[in-house]
Amino acid sequence: MYSNYREKHIQNDLVGRGISTPLLLEAFRAVPRELFVLESNIEQAYDDRPLSIGYGQTISQPYIVALMSELLQLTQQDTVLEIGTGSGYQTAILSRLCAKVYTVEVVKELYLCAKKRLVELGYRNVSLKHGDGYEGWPENAPYYGIIVTCAPDHIPPPLLTQLAIGGRMVIPVGPERGIQELVLVEHEKNGYQQRSVIPVAFVPLLRGKQQLG
Questions:
Q1: Whole-prediction pTM
Q2: What are the strands, taking DSSP E only, across the chain?
Q3: Strand, helix or coil at 140?
Q4: CA-based nearest residue to 88, from 113, 125, 55
Q5: To which CATH superfamily is domain 3-200 assigned?
Q6: Active site includes 60?
Q7: Could you say which of 35, 93, 104, 198 has the lowest number of CB atoms within 10 Å?
Q8: Which of 3, 40, 52, 60 is flagged as catalytic?
């Protein structure tokens, strides 16, 4: 039912704005965003904007999901860490681009829902954890790619230590209310290089473990 909307969205909002990696575009064709949004928002699933997923969190704008994924420059042999599982949509996209995705979600209800959804949809190369994303997931480090889908006011040092040499991290950085920048961090042999990509607006990175309800 939604395949025509999906293809139109890919051509207009992704290809039309410069997203060109073939495997990434195929991932967007394969992952049904309508299954990752609230039922009340299903008619807006292919609008190029963030949507609420409850608990004060959002599913990111598809163009931003695509841009952040493309900036990682993944190969299908890579291992990736995602901070902020949310609904699991970005996780599902990443799972089609690399060998293994480790993803951490601080809100227990979202973690449980995403885990159930990803299992039911057959994503087998994903491991989920309910925990504090600021600390990453050191047991499985290093990661060639780290993607952060919520904004701290600084780059967490634990994430830097878990980024492999030659790896890339994409992270929004800035205050909860104010200008945030999407930052690309590259771990080179002689240290870390970083540059700002575009201004963005993300929900803040929450610390600790959040258990609602």
A1: 0.94
A2: 51-54, 57-59, 79-83, 100-105, 126-130, 143-148, 163-173, 180-188, 191-200
A3: helix
A4: 113
A5: Vaccinia Virus protein VP39 (3.40.50.150)
A6: yes
A7: 198
A8: 60
